[in-house]
Specification:
With about 280 residues, the protein is α/β, with parallel strands linked by helices. The chain has ten helices and eight strands. The mean pLDDT is about 95.
Length: about 280
């Protein structure tokens, strides 16, 4: 069995067929990320999880929606996060890639506020972190501190150390795309590293190096569907069924069998989210 630790199921018109195709490839469970197109759509993933027993949900305000982290929406987040089908808060974090994203201080304030909600609920967080490394010159000028393309990672890890690590709760670095130093810091902070379809891309050598050496008990697989379709399906809309492709690629990188990676990542998911077992 394989578990897709991060997918956006509210993006599919024919969801029943998508879930059936996942089941046919051995992807028996999935975590639906409840961000939608803003806080007014967070509930959709929860509704899906209530209807489909193999689906669990998260809820959160993506950093692109950080300006909507109002007291009212944070209260809504807490209410939805209290649902037993919701096992995580997220995806939350920082995004220094898009020029028109909220200001750095707004993103950071929203991130802190949501970590506080997660701590109150005693639920893990799933993290979005995108740097300005490949951004436009305008975005670089806006987000980089002293020309540092890794400012998002530096800020993220600092805020986690200040506001999350003291809680003793774990989390997921969703679609891990950092380097070995950032992986080490994430692991030390109690996070799992989740690898998506971009792991299979030829230029993803840094991510592949991390995937080779990451502790076996701290790795997960995901699709981030409908985005980041793995090779050889790239160019098509991604689906949870393709988690099996990324898991096979991860197995090859680590010199393991696909069955061993499936078993290990499933065990890791259950360790992180015990309520999803069974």
């Amino acid at each position: 069995m394989i578990i897709d630790s991060h997918c956006h199921l509210d993006d599919y018109a024919e969801l029943d067929a998508v879930i059936a195709r996942a089941d046919a490839t051995g992807v028996k469970k999935m975590l639906a990320i409840g961000i939608g197109n803003g806080p007014h759509e967070m509930h959709i993933a929860v509704d899906i999880a209530r209807k489909h027993p193999q689906v669990w949900a998260s809820v959160g305000l993506h950093p692109q929606e950080a300006h909507q982290a109002t007291p009212e929406n944070l209260t809504l987040l807490e209410e939805l996060g209290s649902d037993p089908r919701v096992v995580a808060i997220g995806e939350i974090g920082l995004d220094y890639y898009h020029f028109d994203n909220p200001d750095v201080d707004v993103q950071q304030a929203a991130f802190i506020a949501q970590m506080q909600v997660a701590a109150k609920l005693r639920k893990p967080i799933t993290i979005h972190c995108r740097t300005s490394e490949l951004a436009t010159p305008q975005a670089k000028a806006r987000y980089e501190s002293h020309g540092n393309p890794h400012a998002a990672w530096d800020d993220l890890l600092r805020l986690i150390a200040e506001h999350w690590t003291p809680t003793g709760l774990p989390g997921i670095m969703h679609c891990f795309s950092g380097n070995e130093s950032q992986a080490k810091a994430s692991l030390e902070a109690g996070f799992y590293l989740s690898f998506a379809g971009n792991l299979t891309y030829p230029k993803s050598t840094t991510i592949q190096a991390v995937a080779c050496t990451a502790p076996a008990d701290r790795i997960l697989v995901e699709t981030d569907a409908p985005f980041l379709t793995p090779i050889p399906m790239r160019g098509q809309q991604n689906e949870p069924a393709n988690t099996a492709i990324t898991a096979k690629f991860l197995a090859e990188l680590r010199g393991a069998t696909p069955e061993a990676i499936a078993e290990q990542t499933t065990s890791n998911f259950y360790a992180l989210f015990p309520a999803t077992r069974g």
